[in-house]
Amino acid sequence: MSLVSRHINTTRLIRTYNASTVLQTLYRHGSCSRTQLAKLTGMSPATITRIIAELMEQGIVLEGKAGKSTGGRRPVYLHIDHTKLYIASLKLLRDDCRAALLDLKGNILSTEKLPWGGQTPQEFLHNTVEILSTIFTQAGINREHILGVGVAVSGICHPKEGRVIRSVNLDWEDVPIAELLGSELQLPIFIENDANACALAEVWLGTARDAVSSMYLKTEEGAGAGIISNKALLNGSRFTTGEIGHVPLIAGGQPCRCGQKGCLEPYVYFGDVQARYAEKTGRKVTRSQFVELIQAQDAAALDLVRESAGALALACTHWGILLDLDVITIGGFWGKLQSEVIDYCQRYYAATARQSGIPCSTTITGSSFNNEDADLLGAAGLVIDRWFAPLSVPFHR
Ligand SMILES: [Zn+2]
């Protein structure tokens, strides 16, 4: 069998409903016996045996050590060979474009900055292909083992057409990323808005693994939300679900660059908070200095954190109750401020739900990832989601 036809068969096999369900279960549980897989997936033992044999023949699933016997034959535990499957990811944000190679567990194996500025989108993407190819060569991996390329873009995207509709931050309009990258790389390309991609990263690799419905609030560079409802990403008819950064939330609140007052963005975009701190104290501080000032109980810094925590608590509570969420993840450094931000939001949410007579078991948490990696992992989460979610659209390449 040639490599090409083997790859097509592999792709076809793991895109079948049964095989992808088995892989998804193994991916989430780490390892399972055939009996456990049958119970967890609801498939017959004969079906599981057949699918596992096919997946093992193709090198995707391995047998581990035999477990303890509970009376009958000792069960053999199966697991996905994470070293055989890779994901490439790209983050395209304001002043921060980066490519990475990850394994299926979300470990970043290598990463490279993408030069930005003075290029057309076509030129930029062509250079990106060359950088990705170098990353693949240096890692010594077989391209057949790359599941796909995930792209997290700061802007409004058409995920099905693989196109950026509009990105104010990149100054891009109507850029067919999947077509441009896919024709050169010959790999499946998936694109998503950055907040949506981060929401998927939390589902597959982070805080929302066990949630049915969850939200990722993107902060620091701006404000946006990625929403998972009933295990599926919400995109909306115009692909603008979660574009909440400039919807006024606080009457008479802080002025925003959009011309309105009280949007979430001026409370979480670090540049705005930094400017207000300088206004109060005459000092310009970096992000890490600001965090140190909070830890040192600096009065001006604490005032600003309380103000931002108040805005985040409103956002979490309004949207959390509206969508009946299990988990809300606050990204960026705001999510790392446990007592000042996370605990405050959790208390506010619980008190509001109690007063409204709504049962509440929503968990508010910081992200599992550091902010620099969140979008790269988000882009990887997008590929994992498209590959392993049983109801997702089949590959078009
Ligand atoms: Zn605004």
Would you mind describing this structure in some detail?
There is one protein chain. With 397 residues, the protein is of the alpha/beta class. Helices cover 44% and strands 20% of the residues. The chain has helices at 3-15, 17-29, 34-41, 45-57, 121-139, 177-185, 194-205, 265-268, 270-281, 287-295, 299-323, 338-355, 371-388, and strands at 32-33, 61-66, 76-80, 86-93, 96-103, 108-113, 146-153, 156-158, 163-167, 172-175, 189-193, 214-218, 224-229, 232-233, 327-330, 363-366. Helix 7 packs across helix 13 (371-388) and helix 10 (287-295) packs across helix 11. The two termini are 20 Å apart. Mean pLDDT is 89; it is low at 1-10 and 390-397. It binds zinc ion. Zinc ion is lined by residues 246, 256, 258, 260, 263, 265.
